[in-house]
Amino acid sequence: MTLIALIDCNSFYCSCEQVFRPDLTNKPVVVLSNNDGCVIARSKEAKDLGIPMGAPYHHYKKLMTFHKVAVFSANFPLYANFSTRIMNTLTQFSDSVEVYSIDEAFISLKGIASDVISYSQLLRQTIFKWTGIPVSIGIGSTKVLAKAANRFAKSIPESNGVFSLASSPAFIDSALKLLPVEDIWGIGKQQSKKLQQRQIKTAFDFKQYKNRSVLLKYLTKTGLQLHDELNGKSCIDISTTIEPRKNIQSSRSFKPELTEFDDVAAALTLFTTRAMEKLRKQNSLTQLISVFIRTNPFNNKPQYKNGITISLPVATNNTLEVAHIVRQCLSVIFKKGIEIKKAGIILSEITDDTSLQQSLFINTNQSNLMASLDQINKKYGRDTIHPANTTRFIKKRQSPKWVSPQYTTNWTDILTVK
DNA sequence: TCTGGGGTCCTAGGACCC
DNA sequence: TCTGGGGTCCTAGGACCC
Question: Closest residue by Cα to the C1' atom of nucleotide B4?
Answer without folding.
Answer: A33
